[in-house]
Each structure stands twice: as structure tokens, then as C-alpha cells.
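Project standup — Tuesday

K.O.: blocked on the structure for the chain from last sprint. Re-posting the sequence here as requested.
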Amino acid sequence: MRTIDMSPLFRHTVGFDRMQRLLDAAMRHDTGAQAYPPYNIEAHGENAYRISMAVAGFSPEELSVTVKEQSLIVTGNAASQDSDENYLHRGIARRNFERRFELAEGVEVSGSSLVNGLLNIDLERVVPEEKQPRTIEIATTDKLATKVIEDQKAA
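H.V.: unblocked you, prediction finished:
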């Protein structure tokens, strides 16, 4: 694994320590434990996303979706099953898991649902009014003269 030294960048910046943590997490390889359960991340338009996780066999009571400090945490705690079952083949993994997703600034969870063994988590990027693009009117000399006259009449 290749290690990238970001310290020269962070000597001249303030507040980017979260970015360093994200880069460190991205550089780690997925192990088998981190690959369960499988998931998809879909874009549904410019500001809408969906995470779909395959959680076959889990009930809604055994699943938890939490947002904490820009991290989406999905956990599954499988209730203990009777060991009296006599499986000829057991291919459906039903083990406890915790999956974390880092959310960008302004991305919020708008809902979740469990349909046909898929946990769907809907996300939406909310752009505050002050950060949305706005058009600035270009004043001309005619408009400035009219405004000065209106201001003088008002005074």
C-alpha cells in the first residue's frame, strides 16, 4: 500500500483535518468484514442520492440508521436464531454489522425504507439560500441618476 504524506499541505491550511481523515479512510483496503453487507450508491438527480444495502433476513427492528457529525452509521444487530435449525446449505449471511459513510457538508438523510430485503436510505443535498447562485444587477448611468433623484425626493 502506498502512503501519501499530506503534512506539507496541512502546514499551510486550517480546518482541513477532516479531509485528512477521509483520505486515510479511503486509502485503507476493504476487508471481508468491511465488505458486508453489499451496497449501492445511486445518484437520483443533481442533489439527490440513495444508498441501497442488501440486508436479507433483517427486520426493521434489527436495523439502525444514525447520523452523527457528518457520518451516516448503519448497524444491524441480528437477533439470535435457534441453533436447532438443520441447514443443508446456509448461504444467507445474517451477522451483525456496522457500515459508515462520510457525508459531504449540506447532505442530509431525508428518509429510509426496507423493501424486498433492501434498506434504502435517501439523501439530499440542501444548499442554503446564501450559498445559492444569485444574479447581480449591473447598474447603468441612467439607473444611477434615477436612483439618486428618488433618494433625494425621499429625503
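K.O.: great, moving the ticket to review. The beta strands are 39-43, 48-54, 63-68, 71-76, 97-102, 107-115, 118-125. The first helix runs from residue 7 to 10.
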